[in-house]
């Protein structure tokens, strides 16, 4: 009997031990596949037992059963995968474009559903990016209400948001951009995003107007680029080759390797185009590396590196007669000098994400970038070099205040770049035709140090289940130091000096209210500013104009977003007024010399509407459409430039109406396609409003076939036509252009006529 009892006890111990082992916890974390934000309230369901669990506020979950699981969350595509014992799982969910308002965004640093955000924020998804040929970013941004990008060439662009930046003659200014946490905006406020390989971008989040209190000096708004994260638990390699009109040839190689807690992605691209116009050849190579390392449940590390090698010839703008009769021609002097841009750029960043406890975490990024360029122009040859370093760190907390959820972030950004520039004579006129630019004597030699810091604080407080209050505050100080390293003579005064702005406080107040589960209304008031560049502050006598004031503005906005008609129609509507004072105007004093003056104020009133409708959502076929409309009523409220009074005139360089519409079709048997239409109204070219560009409309089409040849090999073949109806239009205008030596002003950059592209994309998963 004793032996029997002993055996029974032994069997029970063994059974209990195996039962305990069989019920060992499986732990995981669910994140947004693009921006790595932890996703809460994700339903994790065992498809065999139907047992469910839900991820917490940090995206983590636990279950005791190995097996096949489904993960579901509003705004994201369902994911089905195998969960195994003794493994910490990092699970990435992809956003569902048909439920975009439910997506969690991070552009304000406090993760929040798009539909509850109290500012005008737009998301450009990966699907939006893939509607075109991933060579030109302009058509992508131009489908976003309130955003307008003019593109004179692949390397000649200007982005405006709500009219801000339209007066910048060359390039983009008064708008900030970030590549993850790495600033793409220089210390002087200039931004370039078009050089980055579109194939590496998974999402754009765009804050419009002076509402980005956590980013500082961006009067027009902030563009946040999100890189494609590497996939965990997956390894694949893909190659893409496309060709098109005007000698377009582009190749891309993409490699991804991921384990359960580490992922690595590398993308190489090579783009060549002969261009539509003379002196328009474009060559660019890029290399982008992105890795994520989940060191423990509380520590994550990510690394980003991007390198760009670009050489692009510059056809420049042309006068009206050439624009109408010979749009392929380049500006005579630029063609004779064979002007071009030869540049190398690198961006590097390392981010550490540490979870102190369930309520507090810290994200710290250190970054560096460089830019090295050589640009022969008809009037001189420019050599420039920029080296930037910085750190951005923030603490995020979630707690309770009076029993209500209270989320906040507190942080700062330190940035410093050193800019060196030299100019030389261009002696191309002294040599036979076809020689191109020839470097002569030195004309200038500057070294500029530019510094700023931002300290920011933002809170989101849920007053009730339906009402959310947002308060933000940014403190910024910017300073410049200029050293003139050129020999000082009577005709060349010493231009060395320094310029320090006063501290600028930029507050933001917003409130949003859920009228129903699917419809939200919001209102916000926010402040912004744009810094003065040293080029604008320098006077002809070499002194720095310390009386200049930075442009500042207040943004007043009301809006609504949501879904109706059984969640088939998504809508976003915003009405705003952006009032700018201390309008900064660049007055041309010579062919390549400008000075800045404060000339008055502008008033930007506008409406932005975005609609997306699901016509058909079946397994075999989906049909979706979109329509976006932007109404701009931008005026010089007060604008006096010397003896000219332009008060009451339309703001230069911005269309009053922009309309976009399109249809997107996908089928289960692999055939897909989309057609997009854009209308742009006329634009004032001069401050006097005596000359306007013509309105134009463009229609683009893309079709393709996407199929799996087997379980591991995917094939995608595509074909596209841009500007189907061969419309003649100005893709960019140069406002207030002046004619020199009796020549007519060169206002126009001709757009491309009808053009084609085709390609093949192969992906192999190991």
Strand and helix layout:
Blueprint: H1 2-22, E1 26-32, E2 43-46, E3 52-54, E4 60-63, E5 67-72, E6 79-83, E7 88-93, E8 104-105, E9 112-113, E10 121-124, H2 126-129, H3 138-141, E11 147-153, E12 156-161, E13 172-173, E14 176-179, E15 182-183, E16 190-191, E17 201-208, E18 221-227, E19 235-244, E20 248-258, E21 262-273, E22 282-296, E23 299-313, H4 320-325, H5 332-337, E24 340-355, E25 360-376, E26 381-401, E27 404-426, E28 439-462, E29 467-484, E30 497-500, E31 504-514, E32 519-530, H6 534-537, E33 551-564, E34 569-581, E35 584-590, E36 593-598, E37 600-617, E38 621-641, E39 644-645, E40 657-667, E41 671-680, E42 696-708, E43 713-722, E44 730-733, E45 748-750, E46 755-765
Parallel strand pairs: 1-7, 14-18
Antiparallel strand pairs: 1-4, 2-3, 2-5, 5-6, 8-9, 10-17, 11-12, 13-16, 14-15, 17-18, 19-20, 19-46, 20-21, 21-22, 22-23, 23-24, 24-25, 25-26, 26-27, 27-28, 28-29, 29-30, 29-31, 31-32, 32-33, 33-34, 34-37, 35-36, 37-38, 38-39, 38-40, 40-41, 41-42, 42-43, 43-46, 44-45
Task: Give a written overview of the molecule.
- A hairpin with a 4-residue loop joins strand 31 (504-514) and strand 32 (519-530).
- The longest helix is centred in the N-terminal third of the chain and has 21 residues, at 2-22.
- Residues 8-22 have low confidence and may be disordered.
- The chain has 766 residues and is mainly beta.
- The strands form 9 sheets. It has a 22-stranded antiparallel beta barrel.
- The protein is built from 6 helices and 46 strands.
- The radius of gyration is 28 Å and the shape is globular.
- The protein is 6% helix and 57% strand.
């Amino acid at each position: 009997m004793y032996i029997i009892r002993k055996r029974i006890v032994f069997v029970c111990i063994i059974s209990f031990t195996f039962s305990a082992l069989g019920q060992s916890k499986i732990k995981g974390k669910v994140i947004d596949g693009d921006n790595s934000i932890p996703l809460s309230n994700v339903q994790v369901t065992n498809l065999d037992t139907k047992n469910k669990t839900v991820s917490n506020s940090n995206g983590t979950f636990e279950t005791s059963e190995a097996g096949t699981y489904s993960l579901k969350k509003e705004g994201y595509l369902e994911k089905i995968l195998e969960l195994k014992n003794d493994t910490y799982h990092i699970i990435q969910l992809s956003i569902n474009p048909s439920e975009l308002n439910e997506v969690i965004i991070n552009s304000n640093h406090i993760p929040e559903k798009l539909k509850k955000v109290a500012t005008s924020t737009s998301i450009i998804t990966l699907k939006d990016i893939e509607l075109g040929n991933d060579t030109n970013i302009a058509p992508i941004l131009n489908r976003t209400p309130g955003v307008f990008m003019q593109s004179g060439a692949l390397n000649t662009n200007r982005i405006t948001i709500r009219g801000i930046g339209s007066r910048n003659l060359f390039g983009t200014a008064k708008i900030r951009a970030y590549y993850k946490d790495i600033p793409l905006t220089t210390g002087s406020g200039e931004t370039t995003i078009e050089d980055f390989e579109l194939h590496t971008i998974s999402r754009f989040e765009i804050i419009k107007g002076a509402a980005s209190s956590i980013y500082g000096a961006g009067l027009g708004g902030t563009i946040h680029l999100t890189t494609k994260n590497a996939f965990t638990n997956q390894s694949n390699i893909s190659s893409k080759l496309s060709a098109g009109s005007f000698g377009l040839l582009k190749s891309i190689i993409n490699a991804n390797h991921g384990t359960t807690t580490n992922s690595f992605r590398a993308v190489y691209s090579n783009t060549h185009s002969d261009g539509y116009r003379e002196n328009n050849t474009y060559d660019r190579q890029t290399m982008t590396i992105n890795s994520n390392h989940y060191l423990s449940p509380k520590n994550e590390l990510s690394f980003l590196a991007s390198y760009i090698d670009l050489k692009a010839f510059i056809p420049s703008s042309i006068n009206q007669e050439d624009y109408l009769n010979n749009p392929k021609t380049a500006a005579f002097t630029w063609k004779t000098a064979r002007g071009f841009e030869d540049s190398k750029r690198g961006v590097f960043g390392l981010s550490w994400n540490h979870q102190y406890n369930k309520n507090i975490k810290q994200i710290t990024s250190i970054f560096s970038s460089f830019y090295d360029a050589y640009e022969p122009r008809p009037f001189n040859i420019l050599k420039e070099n920029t080296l930037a370093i910085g750190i951005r760190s923030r603490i995020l907390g979630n707690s309770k205040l009076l029993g209500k959820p209270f989320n906040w972030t507190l942080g700062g950004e330190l940035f410093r770049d050193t800019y060196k520039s030299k100019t030389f004579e261009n002696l191309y006129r002294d040599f036979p035709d076809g020689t191109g630019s020839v470097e002569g004597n030195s004309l200038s030699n500057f070294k500029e140090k530019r510094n700023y810091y931002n300290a920011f604080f933002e809170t989101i407080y849920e007053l009730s289940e339906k009402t959310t209050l947002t308060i933000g505050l940014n403190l910024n100080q910017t300073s410049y130091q200029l050293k003139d390293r050129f020999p000082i003579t009577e005709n060349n005064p010493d231009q060395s000096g320094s310029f320090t702005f006063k501290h600028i406080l930029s507050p933001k107040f917003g409130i949003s209210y859920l009228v129903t589960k699917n419809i939200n209304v919001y209102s916000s008031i926010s402040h912004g500013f744009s810094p003065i560049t040293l080029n604008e502050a320098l006077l002809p006598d070499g002194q720095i104009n310390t009386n200049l004031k930075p442009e500042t503005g207040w943004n007043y906005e009301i809006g609504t977003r949501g879904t109706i008609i059984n969640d088939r129609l998504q809508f976003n509507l915003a009405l705003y007024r952006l009032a700018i004072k201390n309008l900064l105007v660049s007055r041309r004093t010579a062919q390549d010399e400008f000075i800045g003056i404060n000339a008055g104020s502008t008033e930007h009133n506008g409406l932005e509407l975005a609609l997306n409708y699901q016509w058909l959502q079946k397994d075999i076929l989906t049909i979706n459409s979109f329509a976006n409309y932007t109404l701009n009523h931008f005026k010089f409220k007060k604008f006096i430039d010397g003896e000219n009074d332009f008060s009451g005139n339309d703001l230069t360089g911005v269309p009053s109406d922009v309309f976009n519409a399109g249809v997107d079709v996908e089928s289960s048997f692999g055939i897909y396609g989309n057609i997009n239409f854009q209308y742009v109204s006329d634009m004032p070219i001069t401050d006097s409003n005596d000359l306007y560009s013509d309105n134009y409309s463009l229609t683009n089409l893309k079709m393709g076939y996407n199929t799996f040849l087997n379980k591991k090999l995917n094939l995608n073949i595509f074909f596209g036509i841009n500007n189907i109806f061969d419309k003649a239009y100005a893709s960019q205008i140069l406002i207030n252009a002046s004619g020199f030596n009796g020549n007519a002003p060169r206002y126009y950059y001709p757009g491309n006529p009808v053009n084609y592209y085709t390609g093949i994309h192969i992906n192999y998963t190991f």
